[in-house]
Amino acid sequence: MKQKNLNREISKRNMLMISLGGVIGTGLFLSSGYTIHEAGPLGTIIAYIVGAFLVYLVMLCLGELSVAMPYTGAFHVYATKYIGPGTGFTVAILYWLTWTIALGSEFTASGLIMQKWFPNIATWKWSLFFIILIFLLNAISVKWFAKAEFWFSSIKVITVIIFIILGLLAIFGVIKYGNQKHAIGLKHIYDHGLFPNGFSGVFTTMLTVNFAFSGTELIGVTAGEAKNPSKTIPKAIHATIWRLIIFFIGSIFIISTLIPYQESGVTQSPFVTVFNNIGIPYTSDIMNFVILTAIISAANSGLYASTRMLWSLSNEGSIPKFIAKTNRENVPIIALIFSMIGGILSLFSSIYAAGSVYLVLVSISGLAVVFVWMAIALSQFNFRKDFIKKGGKINELGYKTPFYPLTPILAFSMSLLSCILIWFDPNQRIALYYTIPFVIVCFSFYKIKIYLSKRGYQNGKNIN
Prior knowledge:
This protein is mostly helical and about 475 residues long. It has helices spanning about 10-25, 25-40, 40-70, 75-80, 85-115, 125-140, 140-170, 185-190, 200-210, 220, 230-260, 270-280, 285-315, 335-350, 355-390, 405-420, 430-455; strands at about 455-460, 460.
């Protein structure tokens, strides 16, 4: 009999922090300034509002599915059941690849940051240290993973809250900011126009905003290990979305107001610039520590997510059954080992084949999350239709996606549109060139596997 879940040890507060931890990272601390530099302050805010709206729609769809079927590796199972097994297989592979690629880059980045403090120790030694640390946090038990992620994410969240509070005080002149003798107000926004590079910059920014919000869907991955999922999942989804809107848009407003857009994120993290001008000592070291925790957090969540995807694929029989094997704490240890190997191979490809293999992998993983969002929206649309067709009543659902069918239709359409818009950006068009063939290969592999299975082939041998 197939196992639907692993140990339910993830609480609501841990689930909330896991989701926040998957989103708040180097994209906010490092890349947000560059985004403002390209699209202008108001253009970036508009793009993030639209992106947050899309993510909220997807999460509303995921809420109904996760409460009705709180399975480990959730959206792969939903896509298999309500779209098709080929789609479910492809979604799982894409999502697994997304996080394993992230693992490789996080291990490299963590080593580089540590070398700033310990220049005599080789980068690879620090990378190896963090590889072992993240592996052990995931291997011991899911409770250890969740607790570690809670504290890693807490550091990031506290940093963003302090940044927003101090930024607002500086804007209104309550505290001194650099050489300014008076309150700054909205001077930097008005002086250079709200759309300095034209309104088209909004659309260019929107292409990257969706990727900035990727990670919220981790709530779906944790569904099978959540305590009391019918209550914790909806609360975690709503809490996550509102916190993300406040943190992201709040931080961008502060950066846009305190730093002229031409200087925003050009030479260093905008967080470092603001903290320096407010007069906080050791700003660079503090932010390097925060960014390091963000990197470790992303690696921790990434290994967890990729492991659960492999376990789910194996549990469903799409890949060899032995990969679903668990240890005494019910952690899928074989899937964990394979995912970590994938992350290490990604690390090597980023060093030795950055212009070829790694470029292809990064391009595919960049679009993968949007494909997953489309699968979630379509799965919920089909689930509700099937539920009613079989005689189910809407009030019997533990959580109901509001404004059905508009919500899943909008979520699917907006996700698809963001993929289409990539074609009009020469810098990101390459993602389509690699991702579409990769998806076709995944579907083809699955169809061939099913064909051979029906013909009686198993493990390369004819069993008839």
